[in-house]
Amino acid sequence: MATFKTLDQLDLQGKRVLLRADLNVPVADGQVTDATRIERIVPTIRKITEAGGKAILLSHFGRPKGKVNPEFSLEQVVPAVVEAVGQPVGFIATDWVDVQTAGEAIDGAPDGSILVLENTRFHPGEEANEGDLAERIASLGDVYVNDAFSAAHRAHASTEALAHLLPSAAGLAMQAELEALQAGLGTPTRPVLALVGGAKVSSKIDLLQNLVTRVDFLVIGGGMANTFLFAQGIDVGNSLCEKDLADTARAIVARAREAHCTILLPTDAVVAGKFETNAEHQTVAVGSVPADGMILDVGAESVRAINAAIDQSKTVVWNGPLGAFELNPFDAGTVAVARHVAERTAAGDLVSVAGGGDTVAALAHAGVKDRFTYVSTAGGAFLEWMEGKDLPGVAALMV
């Protein structure tokens, strides 16, 4: 992996620092309900302000489709930023057509100030990666710092074009993410085990095809596993299954064989007649699923096999749950494996990297979100990185 500039390489004193953050956080009734993404950028904000720079936060929020829409104003996020940083935060309702007013407000703020600019997506040039908008934004700053890995898979004006117009670097959260990803799949300590779950193979074909050439063990769980079992001639009853992708599944298995990657599929399953909490259930061998039964979790035998493979590994990369973890008791497989990974990580035997919305929720449910080496809050960016794709927002920071 190419090297990228870090915050330590920028002179921040007295500088206007355009900080690309991800303030696209969940809001209900005007209140931020999960400030995780805001909390992750606090160290970068503090480093800028303590060095005597002005932290000028740029972010998108929602999908206003290139038009000013008060419903998507970042002003409602400012109180959560204030709470996270513990000091006053200014808000500038920027007119992205004429940035003179914003420039005057920034210039009038003392060094060490924190300011939030209005939603970058209020201008159509943001998602179009328009050079003219990027130049206008650049005129408001002296240096550019990107601390929004979760938006790095988009080539937008504030994530890609802007990085080429000013001295640029990765923020501390972005740096930690890139270093964790490098340890996960870039230059990992082998053997490497990837665990991929979730509902559908169709959404993760590129991911699976990339992983089988880069890891030593590939655990496939969730509804995806049913498609692979079906492709092997196993009747999965009434389970979620993309039968039209059987040939794709067989091709992935063949590719894995050529790459000497061992694929682990469930050998037993927890089966129920209904998709609901505490539904009547039984554990059966995968070849004995009743015609009206749905596979909702991996069984204890499968958990033991997965944990045994983890014990042989030095690196684990995780994306997606093993079963219907949101329903009790069909969370048991995911919880058991997550806790085993956490224990091995704590013992210093394993580097564990996880990401994706459902994954973060599943690890939090298992009580181990803070016990992995690194858990990414990025959704699409993390998935595209696992697929082996270049991320424009990251590539723009490379030297």
Textual characterization of the structure:
By secondary structure, the protein is of the alpha/beta class. The chain is 33% helix and 17% strand. The chain folds into 2 domains: 7-173, Rossmann fold, CATH 3.40.50; 188-386, Phosphoglycerate kinase, N-terminal domain (Rossmann fold, 3-Layer(aba) Sandwich). The strands form 4 sheets. The chain has a 6-stranded parallel sheet with strand order 5-6-4-1-7-8. A 6-stranded parallel sheet has the order 11-10-9-15-16-17, sandwiched between helices. A 3-stranded antiparallel sheet has the order 13-12-14.
Give a brief outline of the structure.
The protein has 399 residues and is α/β, with parallel strands linked by helices. The chain has 13 helices and 17 strands.
Comma- or semicolon-separated keywords:
13 helices, six-stranded parallel beta sheet, 2 domains, 399 residues, alpha/beta, Rossmann fold
SSE map:
Elements: E1 16-20, E2 27-28, E3 31-32, H1 36-50, E4 54-58, H2 78-85, E5 90-92, H3 100-108, E6 114-117, H4 131-138, E7 143-146, E8 168-170, H5 172-186, E9 192-196, H6 205-211, E10 217-220, H7 222-231, H8 246-258, E11 262-264, E12 268-272, E13 281-285, E14 294-298, H9 300-311, E15 315-319, H10 332-346, E16 351-355, H11 357-365, E17 374-376, H12 380-386, H13 392-395
Parallel strand pairs: 1-4, 1-7, 4-6, 5-6, 7-8, 9-10, 9-15, 10-11, 15-16, 16-17
Antiparallel strand pairs: 2-3, 12-13, 12-14
Number of separate helices = 13
Radius of gyration: 23 Å
Mean pLDDT, all residues = 95
Helical amount:
25-40%
Strand order of the largest sheet: 5-6-4-1-7-8
pLDDT < 50 runs, ≥5 residues = none
Largest sheet: 6 strands, parallel
Q: Per CATH, what is the topology of the largest domain?
A: Rossmann fold
Strand element count? 17
